[in-house]
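Re: export button greyed out
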Amino acid sequence: MKIILDAMGGDNAPDEIVKGAAQAVAENRDNLTLALVGNEEIIRASAAKQNIALDEHFEIVNTTQTIEMCDEPAKAIRTKKDSSMVVGLRMLAEGKGDAFVSAGSTGALHVGASLIVRTIKGVKRPALATIIPGGKKPYLLMDCGANVECRAPMLHAFGVMGSAYMNKVMGIAVPDVALVNNGAEESKGTPLYKEAHQLLKADPNLHFIGNIEPRDVPDGNADVVVCDGFTGNVILKLTEGLAKTLLGMVKEVFLKGLTTKLAYLLVKDGFKDVKKKMDSEEYGGAPLLGTARPVIKAHGSSKAKAIKNAIRQARLCVESDLVGTMTEALAALEQPKPEENA
Amino acid sequence: MKIILDAMGGDNAPDEIVKGAAQAVAENRDNLTLALVGNEEIIRASAAKQNIALDEHFEIVNTTQTIEMCDEPAKAIRTKKDSSMVVGLRMLAEGKGDAFVSAGSTGALHVGASLIVRTIKGVKRPALATIIPGGKKPYLLMDCGANVECRAPMLHAFGVMGSAYMNKVMGIAVPDVALVNNGAEESKGTPLYKEAHQLLKADPNLHFIGNIEPRDVPDGNADVVVCDGFTGNVILKLTEGLAKTLLGMVKEVFLKGLTTKLAYLLVKDGFKDVKKKMDSEEYGGAPLLGTARPVIKAHGSSKAKAIKNAIRQARLCVESDLVGTMTEALAALEQPKPEENA
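Workaround output, generated via the alternate export path:
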């Protein structure tokens, strides 16, 4: 299996990307080749500096451009033809690799994947899904911001794709799918959410557990949490922001004096566990679901561990034929229902 | 001044309502009368049980019905004519009191206030605003769920009303108003949010600081955070849920063993401060903004302290003539602009 890696994307490129790549290969020497796409000279210098041997498990594809976070996404994809992201996506589209992982600009990756890799039949634009740490278990939130305006069948498709992902990649036999809404009753929400509720409920292939109120989302009661991209972006970013604010407040308590610092020593390990539980790096990247081949977006601030985990995710997508499963499941939605033929 | 109080509304009625009322009067014996609306026998029994003297600062308005949390809001307002909520709202509409406070059903209070108390000119439905504890300072979030579907001029009006509230009731000279959005640039978001951004930006009477990303909301950088009711409901409830989940995780760390329990003793006071900072009871109720007279919704689980604070909020609304200020500010929005006359 060959995973294509954007070696120039993200805040810590290329050092942490190269380091994460080496860790991924160390875990999987039997069947993993990584194509590092980026400036060859810089990649080799980074590897040398970190004493990483770029052996037969690595190939380097030299490129001369990099898409920056501040670049306008559509323009960057159109004009930076020799960027690590565009070249990597083109390799994926041409079958020169099985999946693509990038920690670069989310917007550019979304546009590039849509235009170059294309989408599964029935999907107009891929959705951005993210695994978020929850109280009981991590959950998949989608869409996290790729589609700020949605129609009800799109929310239905998010449920179908998210369920396939949690089953194939996260190994959950029957994923619980829930719809974000401002109340448990199916009469709640905007017309969009009322219609989406009915579509999800009527789907015999989904285990739809109904509406989930935002207060219950962090607990991790559902495996897949469906919403439009504007709402998903609010949930994703508010969760990050609030966890930071709250843990910051707690930390301040410990820094107040000598005795509280002493207290910290007694609970230090426990707090590390809480932080680890809330650490999105543990779960790797955010899959773009609905692309014709697997594309994984790693967090822009990813360090080596997150890159390694994103590569593992990409590998699981390929091994489980996630795209094939989703294609079949979405095709079933497009079939006219028996009663409609009667 | 006379504040009308729904003595039967909320999870802890009437005991905590009566107790909170007594605390409010104790703080303000010079100029405060409270009209306790509800079953007189039950109210008197509750006061007697708690050794509260219902002196000349209290009047009791006997009613025979109660609107329950499970009642369908519009139907309850229409059919339960002798409920504490409907009678209280009617007293307010008729000028038999200066403001109304209830911890009962949010939906019923919203419908009842709209129908009985009516709205300020230019406001179709009142918005539900909530003071949420933030890292740096508390902020007013609106709409929190009363208007799940909004047009851009409504979001503009939320900014205007919220700014007036933070100025008059919370004493902030020039409140910073921000618009929730999935990016800082004004080109971000759905068409609704793009249009609202332009309206808020063009208003010379607002101190609009631009879009606020959800990750920055909990820090408390803005005084007024504007969004549609669906999004506001997500922010409000997710904040509650996540704070509970996270502080629960932290608490578990302390309960693990003898030494961690010892550690807890050392930081106990500090944690109480954090909990207090995150405690919405500190800030009292959620004003329904846009009603023709002040209506305050206290949290359904309010205890005496929250009721006392909600009464104080109602008093500040009356003393500062909040409704008059909002009426003028909203009338200014309706005026054609000079350049449009040219």
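The first strand of chain A starts at residue 2 and ends at 6. The button fix ships in the next patch.
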